[in-house]
Design goal:
By secondary structure, the chain is α/β, with parallel strands linked by helices. The chain is built from 13 helices and twelve strands. Strand 1 (about 45-50), helix 1 and strand 2 (about 80-85) form a beta-alpha-beta unit. The radius of gyration is 21 Å and the shape is globular.
Length: about 375
């Protein structure tokens, strides 16, 4: 059973639903005057709590995009108070309390541990501070959720792996390197992947990787190699790019030169270069600008009482273990392979072609037609 349920089957792209929130004035209302909500002006503070730094996306993309969008929507009067938990759930709970004590106007929360943070979410609610779950579905009385379609991510990864392994036999052995057991997204990626892999291949080893750390994935993979036999591994499902890098190190340490297909997620620069060189088969590209800008729009609309705009951004609904019918936006994803690097991460400005095709990868780029 899916932890999220789609009430609206189609999700509009952020580029087609960008809203001129600031144009609505400092005291926006929703609907007619009878539906008007108490509002704040542009001088607002958005609290942003991100979970860790092992994944470079949070500092490189999410925070600056959210900060810049808030500035744009508030005529440069709003601000973002940003804290990162470094994968420490207790630290994040303290950071959340700090934001409550600082009386920020709204909190965007990307939880380290979605269950453990529920009490903090309740405290924010009691203090009158809306909490929007960002990227990971936190428990507790959150006001909205913005993320990617996480089970679809797992499905895309698994389908891509099977495609790369074709022709596939049900006796072909693979290793599953799943994400952190405290991250609800990891459970959804895994569920989506299993819906494609079960019965199609032999999942010889499966690991839930503590804190998503590449070194933990590397250690797990070394164990899998010893147990299964390096020549018997036909493919590896790695839930993100950092862990894919750890998997590759373990395989290379075992003397493998012809790597099996390996999946990933997040389209990190190192991973894109590995895709170019053929070390990693694919990643999942998720439009961080779309997710982050939508989150900023939600936060500003919620604080300023612009209910029509807020509702237009949250046309899906999801269920968490503690709450039902949470307004949500689920952003679509794309399988990133050698074939569409230029059309995705380069076109969207995530990575420069010159950075991807550095000296080490120049020949490989030219070989797949990715050169300048």
């Amino acid at each position: 059973m899916r932890p999220t349920r789609r009430i609206v089957t189609a999700v509009a792209a952020a580029s087609t639903m960008t809203l001129s929130l600031a144009a609505c004035g400092a005291l926006g209302v929703s609907g007619d005057s009878s539906e008007a909500s108490p509002t704040k002006g542009n001088d607002i503070t958005v609290g942003l709590l991100l979970p860790e730094t092992a994944n470079t996306r949070y500092d490189k993309f999410d925070y600056p995009i959210i900060r810049n969008k808030v500035l744009e929507l508030t005529d440069k009067q709003g601000k973002v108070e940003y804290l990162n938990a470094d994968a420490d759930a207790a630290k994040q709970a303290t950071q959340l309390q700090q934001m409550i004590d600082d009386q920020v106007d709204v909190i965007l929360l990307d939880a380290v541990d979605s269950h453990a943070i529920a009490d903090g979410v309740q405290k924010a609610k009691d203090a009158g501070i809306p909490v929007i779950a960002y990227d990971r579905l936190a428990e507790g009385p959150i006001d909205a959720y913005v993320s990617f379609d996480n089970e679809l991510v797992g499905e895309v990864q698994a389908r891509s792996l099977l495609e790369a392994m074709a022709p596939v036999d049900s006796s072909d052995k693979i290793v599953m390197m799943n994400g952190s057991p405290t991250d609800p997204n990891a459970k959804q990626f895994k569920a989506g992947a299993l819906s494609e892999l079960n019965g199609a291949v032999d999942i010889a080893k499966s690991y839930d990787t503590k804190d998503w750390k590449p070194e933990n994935a590397q250690a797990n993979m070394a164990q899998a190699i010893q147990s299964i036999g390096v020549n018997n591994i036909k493919g590896v499902y790695a839930a993100n790019d950092g862990m894919a890098g750890g998997v590759i190190k373990a395989l290379e340490a075992a003397g493998v030169t012809n790597l099996p297909p390996i999946t990933g997620q997040d389209a990190e620069l190192d991973a894109v270069q590995r895709i170019v060189s053929g070390e990693q088969y694919m990643s999942v590209y998720k439009s961080y600008p779309q997710e982050a800008e939508s989150a900023a729009q939600m936060a500003v609309a919620k604080v300023q009482g612009k209910d029509i705009q807020f509702d237009s951004l949250t046309q899906d609904q999801v269920d968490s273990p503690t709450d039902k019918d949470i307004p949500a936006l689920l952003v679509p994803v794309v399988a990133l392979t050698q074939k569409n690097i230029k059309k995705t991460v380069v076109a969207d400005g995530i990575h420069e072609l010159s950075d991807i095709c550095s000296a080490k990868y120049k020949a490989a780029c030219q070989e797949i037609g990715l050169g300048k």
